[in-house]
Amino acid sequence: MQNLNDNELMLKYQQGEYRAMDELLRRYKNPVYRFVFRLSLNMAEAQDITQEVFLRVHKNRMSYQPSGKFSTWIFSIAHNVFISRWRRQRRFLPWPTKNKDSEELAEFASPDPSPDETVYTDELSGIVRDCVKTLPLLQREALFLREFEKLDYDEIARILKKSLGTVKTLIHRARLNLKEKLLPFIKETGGCNV
Amino acid sequence: MYKRHVLKELSAYLDDQLSDKEKLAVYNHLSECKTCAEELAKLRLVSEKIKTLPEPSLKEDFDASIMSEILRQELEGGRVNMKTRPLAILVPSGVIVGILFLIVAVGMQPFIKRSYQGKPVSSGRIDKYFYSTTLNSPVSETSYWDLGDQKQLGFGKSVSRRFGGKPINGLAVDEAKVLALGGKESFRAEYDGSAFGMVRATASTPYNEPTGQETSVIVIQPILPATGQGQMIIRIGNISLEVENGQNTYQQALQISQELGGFISNSSFYKDREGREAGTITMRIPKEKFDTALDKLSKLGKVEGVNSTSQDVSQEYANLKAQLDAKIIVYNKMLDALKERKVTIPEAVRIERELAPIVSEIETLKNRIEYLNNQVAFTTVTLNFHEPEVSAKVLNETKRIIKEMLLTTSINAIKLFAKAVPVALALIFWLVVVGVAVLVIKYLFGRLFRR
Question: CA-based Rg of chain A, rounded to a whole angstrom?
Fold first, then answer.
């Protein structure tokens, strides 16, 4: 199974070869989980969403077309699941939304670090997280898919259901926004050599 | 080469998402434009710093939870393909079946060990019977077995064969109940045919080592059948009914009593303030007709409760009989002595003085025996009945009144309608007359004014 590519694994899975799912899980569970976690900043929620993503993969396995890339397909599922949950729960969960919302939420945040925040081991990663939180959701998604998953712009466009130009703009604006917010901190901590 | 700044293209350039031509153009521009080059450096730095975000991993059991959830969904949908993952499904199933088999086997162990293992120590006359077994369960438990119908344990089966189904001393042993158990892990039961149906069991070491070190005694007492023939059993039945008509029920109950050869020992019949009838009848019914009586009486109305109790007076009856026999023997001997003049005069006086209370006791015993005979021969059945809170009679009366009211109302309505018709006709007539008159006047005035 390890020698097969993603599409071949999905074809096997479509034929009822359940071991193919083990391999797909091994390859994609953590990328999906991290992607969702970076968006939600909530470990439990990210795990739930990841589980739902794989259950949807199982449920919709017969509709999978091997013409595209599996990574595009699974990340588009993750995007859909996240967006639907976010819309349903944004009134109740402190998930980052727009800048204004994030700032408002920050005022009510507990001064003690939550269990989810313990993963930010150094000061810089905490600062980066705070800066990323202020980005609009689509910018964050596009940026993460590019930076961490190394997806091409056209794949990101398919995942987010946007045009190629829009994705290009989203990623660029995300970087510009981050640059404005992040560079002052980097200069303070001496991490900037520009 | 771009002459303008390429700031908007820098991200795509950084991500290597430009075409070769665009890439070359941006590259050439960057070599000459310090602003754009600095901007690219900043963007690259931002890109590096983003990667400092943590990369948490899922727990080890995540895969298992997903797969179990998938399997659960498949099972619910009935779509499990056994061929696809035979080991993953068959192995857990096999383990579960094995565990269940072990549980059942261990659970059956006490029953298996309690099956017949004993050997008869004497053949021919049934005086003693030995039985050995091992009890894993607490020895103070209560156990049951049949000695008659051979349907429970091998123990009962064997005993039944040896007894040949015959009663012991006139007492049919159909079932035996362990009242108390002593000993620790084993016991030995001894059946004594000479005892009046009593079965004795002694706790000791297993029968294989009959050392006789008895530690305690188990008394197994036969449970007599409730309707056993030859037994002295007083039966009392109570039945409560809700009936439609109290008087009819009373008459029917009397009739049933007579038909079954019984008689009424007590009865009462009354009406309450609302006119509902109720009563109580106590009847004596021959013992063999007891069940028939309850059955027939229960059909007279809606049964609210039935209870039946039995009191075994066999022992008391036997004691009374024995006392009576003894008293009669003493009485006869005293009488014989007096008749044959075998005693002296003072002794005769004493005997006569003692005879009086003996006669009295004999009479008392006879009366008691007669009473028991009577109680056993004729069972007591008490019937309580009452009409329902909303009696059918009251209901019928109410219905009748409502019907009458409706009829009266209907008649009155028809009468009123009949009276109204002439008035309405007259009114219509006069309206027509007035209308015609108005039209005529209007016509005449019209002609007059035209001129």
Answer: 18
CB B283 within 8 A of CB B381: yes
Q: Which two tokens stand for residue B14?
A: 């950084």
Domains of chain A from N-terminus onward: 1-95 (1.10.1740.10), 98-194 (1.10.10.10)
For B396-408, the pLDDT digits (tens) are 778 888 999 999 9
Residue from the list A50, A124, A182 with its beta carbon closest to the beta carbon of B46: A182
B438 three-state secondary structure: helix
DSSP state of B3: S
Helices H / strands E in chain B, number of each: 11, 11
Smallest Cβ distance to A38: which of B42, B52, B53?
Answer: B53
CA angle centred on B75, ends B71 and B79, rounded to 5°:
95
CA distance A47 to chain B (A): 7
Question: d(Cα A39, Cα A102) in Å, to the nearest integer?
Answer: 13
Output the DSSP codes for B363-411. HHHHHHHHHHHHHHHEEEEEEEEE--SS-HHHHHHHHHHHHHHHHHHHH
A contacts of B89 (beta carbons < 8 Å) = none
Residue B420 vs residues A2, B407, B415, B426: alpha-carbon distances, Å: 102, 20, 9, 10
Residue B234 φ then ψ, to 5°: -95, 125
Nearest to B218 by CA among B235, B195, B200, B238: B200
Per-residue pLDDT of chain A (194 residues; tens, 9 = 90+): 778 888 889 888 888 887 888 889 989 999 999 999 988 888 888 999 999 999 999 888 888 888 888 999 999 999 999 998 888 876 555 555 444 444 433 333 334 445 555 555 567 778 888 888 888 989 999 999 999 989 999 999 999 999 999 999 999 999 999 888 888 877 655 544 33
Partner-chain residue, chosen from A38, A125, A168, that has the shortest CB–CB distance to B52: A125
Tokens describing residue B398: 């109410």
Six token digits for residue B35: 């602003």
The whole-angstrom separation of Cα B163 and Cα B119 is: 15
CA B304 vs CA B114, B307, B384: distances in Å: 44, 10, 10
d(CA B264, CA B205): 60
Do β-strands B378-386 and B233-242 pair in parallel, antiparallel, or remain unpaired?
Answer: parallel
Tracing tokens 């005879």 back to the chain, one arrives at: B355
Chain B segment 27-46 residues within 8 A of A by beta carbon are 38, 41-43, 45-46
Considering chain B, what is the average pLDDT of its residues?
70
Subunit contact A192:B53, Cβ cutoff 8 A: no
